[in-house]
């Protein structure tokens, strides 16, 4: 071993304690940490040669990079649907690195069985009876896996295997959706189906939910099977497609139903909103993103499907050194990755620690904070909601230059919101999903906007 590495091994308990103490100090100040100001430029450093050891690296990080890190784990980071990290999820994530399990296969470790258990818990929580699942890195990868399986399903109906014969044997595939997320376009591009395969379908008036009658007309005009992408929670207004009405169309038209429920699927935990995801179990594939409302660290989502045989056909990986496919496939037969960390452990910890009751409280608390902000914003001159606050996102128009308002919010250090455009109108959106967020945080965001938008004498 080199000297710094040997020294670090000898001092490992003290180094971990120092890192723990530093992390605790960061988290203790998270509520008042500047949320997302523009960071100062950090001059590039040369590649280290000898190295300075862990203590030196920690000091360098604290000095050079930490001051520019956002408070994205805190209660007023509302620009993206980003949960924080519950204490239990943080513990699980730290142990993920400490154990460093190879969870790609089931031999030599119980890690894969822990992932199976966690996926089963999540499936039960979302009512996904009959579905199998696996952890992936995020919603984009979850959507990609769902479309890849759907692509194979369409191939089977045409008498070809895309996994073996390639896209040339498949021919054109049509994808229909009312208000598809940008990651859908990206996934279609990666899979070779092409962004132009997506044909937008009309939405209901003043809504982002698909017009089911228009969807039926689009399906009737096709000669063969298609992929339908339904939304369980759109980005701008958290609108939901009528899943049961869409499922009813399968009696007359062949299509693969993929539901993008990245964060809207968590409506299942709210008694008042669970009806919005009625029919979710009937989908062929489902995307759920856990770094959002489950409040686990980034790099955690789940893909669900009712067609594991097709999933294995797409993602199987055979080699002399790998176990053969069995009735319970290894995870490298189910997702694009061979090497994969134990993403499930953070989710297992937070579900074990707080249960469905605890996570229901997180969901309903975020919904209440969003409604509180929406109600208070309507009293500000020139501010108007562009859609009802359906779940956890407030989409609203402000007078003047929205980009300038966004910059002023960020520069204040009080909060972080992002700009958007809804039905051609420039807008701002505030997305609530953090377990730390309280009603007082919604009030602070309101007060900040009031001060920014109030003309000064």
Explain what this protein looks like in three dimensions.
This protein has helices at residues 3-10, 12-28, 53-64, 87-99, 111-125, 139-157, 162-165, 167-170, 182-190, 212-220, 243-248, 290-293, 308-315, 344-377, 402-412, 439-453; strands at residues 132-136, 175-177, 198-200, 226-231, 255-260, 285-289, 301-305, 384-385, 393-397, 418-422, 425-431. It has 16 helices and eleven strands. Among the domains are: 3-71; 102-343, Type I PLP-dependent aspartate aminotransferase-like (Major domain) (Aspartate Aminotransferase, domain 2, 3-Layer(aba) Sandwich). α6 packs across α9 (182-190), α14 (344-377) packs across α16 (439-453) and α15 (402-412) crosses α16 (439-453). Helices cover 41% and strands 11% of the residues. It is globular. The chain is of the alpha/beta class and 457 residues long.
Number of DSSP helices? 16
Shape: globular
The CATH topology name of one domain reads: Aspartate Aminotransferase, domain 2
Helix share bin = 40-55%
How do the SSEs run, as a string of H and E?
Answer: HHHHHEHHHEHEHEHEEHEHHEEHEEH
Tally the beta strands: 11
Strand residues, percent:
5-15%
Largest sheet: 7 strands, mixed
Structural class: alpha/beta
Q: Supply the CATH architecture of one domain.
A: 3-Layer(aba) Sandwich
The pLDDT mean sits at: 95
What is the element layout, followed by pairings?
Blueprint: H1 3-10, H2 12-28, H3 53-64, H4 87-99, H5 111-125, E1 132-136, H6 139-157, H7 162-165, H8 167-170, E2 175-177, H9 182-190, E3 198-200, H10 212-220, E4 226-231, H11 243-248, E5 255-260, E6 285-289, H12 290-293, E7 301-305, H13 308-315, H14 344-377, E8 384-385, E9 393-397, H15 402-412, E10 418-422, E11 425-431, H16 439-453
Parallel strand pairs: 2-3, 2-4, 4-5, 5-6
Antiparallel strand pairs: 1-7, 6-7, 8-9, 9-11, 10-11
Helix pairs in contact: 4-14, 5-14, 6-9, 6-13, 14-16, 15-16
